[in-house]
Design goal:
The complex is a heterodimer of chains A (227) and B (384). Chain A is built from 7 helices and 10 strands. Chain A has 227 residues and is α/β, with parallel strands linked by helices. In chain A, the strands form 2 sheets. In chain A, strands 6-7-8-3-9-10 form a 6-stranded mixed β-sheet. Chain A has a 4-stranded antiparallel β-sheet with strand order 2-1-4-5, covered by helices on one side. Chain A starts with a strand and ends with a strand. Chain B folds into 2 domains: 2-50 and 244-383, no CATH class; 57-209, no CATH class. Chain B contains 16 helices and 10 strands. In chain B, strands 2-3-8-5-7-6 form a 6-stranded mixed β-barrel, surrounded by 4 helices. In chain B, a hairpin with a 2-residue loop joins strand 2 (86-99) and strand 3. In chain B, helix 2 (15-51) runs antiparallel to helix 11 (242-280) and helix 13 (295-331) packs antiparallel against helix 15. Chain B is elongated, with a radius of gyration of 32 Å. The mean pLDDT of chain B is 88. Classes of the chains: A alpha/beta (227), B alpha+beta (384). Chain A binds chain B through residues 46, 50, 53, 55-56, 75-76, 79-84, 88, 90-92, 94, 96-99, 107-108, 110-112, 114-115, 156, 168, and chain B through 1-2, 5-6, 9-10, 12-13, 283-284, 287-297, 377-378, 381-382, 384.
Amino acid sequence: MGIIELKQVDKIYTGAVNTQVLFGIDLVFEEGSCNSIVGTSGSGKSTLLHIIGTLDRPTRGQVLINGQRTDSMDKNQLAELRNETIGFVFQFHHLLPEFTAMENVVIPYLIQKRRLTKEILKRVDELFEMLGISDVKHNPAMKMSGGQQQRTAIARALINNPKIILADEPTGNLDSETAERICKLFREIINRYQTTFIIVTHDYRVAEHTQRIVEIKDGRINTDKSE
Amino acid sequence: MLSFKMAIRFLVYGRTQTILIVIGIAVAISIQVFVGLLINSLQRTLVDRTIGNTSQITITSATDSSTIRSWQDTISDIEKMGIVRAISASASVNAFVQDENRSLPILVRGFNFAAADSILNISDAIYEGSIYRSRREVLVGKDLREELEVNLGDRLVVITPSGSTNTLTISGFYDLGVSSINKTWVITYLETVQKIFDLGDRVTSIEMKVDDVFQADVMANEIQQKLDNEDIKIENWKEQNQELLSGLEGQETSSTIIQVVIILSVIIAISSVLALSVLQKSREIGILKAMGIKDRAASLIFIYQGFLLGLVGSVAGVALGLGLIYAFINFTTSPDGAQLVDLYIGYDFILRSWLIALLASTLAGVIPARKSLTLNPIDVIKEV
């Protein structure tokens, strides 16, 4: 049993015209593994990631996280699951401009806890140190470079020590040098924290950093290769 | 806690918008406080000046003799109830004053001076001479004095309805501010009136003053029930001043309408600004939801924003409103420098206005809070 299991997942967007973007997806991701989902624009890879991350619900089929079925959970249970188990890194860092880098990082922690402990502040320092952004810790979110913002978003995804990190085109908005550095960071994070990683990307160079590459084409699994 | 922190940060980050809405709330609340206090002060000034120095509850006789027997017992019974501020018995009889070839109608009023003074405030109204010191002395009103062209120490020839003639000496002149009183009342000892008009130990009325004039009718009823005497009838100023009352009620209603409209506009203004803020902050709310914030906590951000805007705006508004009313009262004076309106600060009114403003602002946060519930993180994340 994997940490994430998808069973016969379909996704249909209803509207004037019904559009099916995922067709019977069966996938299992092992705990501590590093995976990528690749595909061209519109292939359904981002939708798949959103379904895995419980941000979106499948039209049919089941998603199991940690062996628990997510289709029977209500909005609050899903919110709790996301907060405790999943860390998100988006293409656009999505930091809150009203807060400093450090404040942004502790938000997922403060969603479940009332106050910051010494331990959590130590963890923040550790993360900033590892990500090489200690010197911009107190900068407002918008007063950092793109790379620094993305690293802050990664620190935010890691703060609650989640079992799963979902990254949607995390390097899509960065220059190739910074993107390369971010990829190396991901590997270091996997080694250090034993986190399950799923990266969605259209860039095969980024995917090559992972142990397993799942290729999605027209809403179906085209290839599924492991190292 | 996080929701509260978020609310503060969102407000501080959107500084200009926050300041504008706070000013908007403050101005609206200040007008509401100003109008409320002004109307209240006007009403109280009007009531004070109209009925402040008159009897507010009056007992008269329901018998043919028009006089009240054993009035001392009645006064003592009412005093025991402890609901009136001052009480005084009076013997008042219509008579004529002889002036050369003509006779003028007057009302000779006999009081126990100390008791009557606490109702009518006569001592302050005496502008020349002093109160009566002997049984044959009287006080005469300003208008009657001008009519008769008399001075201190002059004699007044009073003719009773039965035709007997009595000569009294003028010890002082008063001005109670009401022409009809100044023209007719001739004031003296209770015993003098009882003697001149053969009333024995009886009086014609018992007059009372209460602390809350607007409760006079309720108190009059209580007294009626307590005394349970068919020989007397009890009236209060409200029955005798229906027109004044309906005028006051009209003022009160218009004041309430203005205040309600102001509060409504505050609610609508805050709601619309916060609803706009949900749109502006939908990205942030979406991200927070993706990170696992629950709907309730996310919507609380907007309730807190409404509360905080209301808190700052209403405190500033109350302060501004008080400043306005002080300025208004001090600047509107009569030519001799006296204030036209006496200021009455109703602290319970201010507290109520403040609490309503705070509650209204917090409630105004409910609409955007509900709107935020429908916000789906996936829409925000996809959008960018």
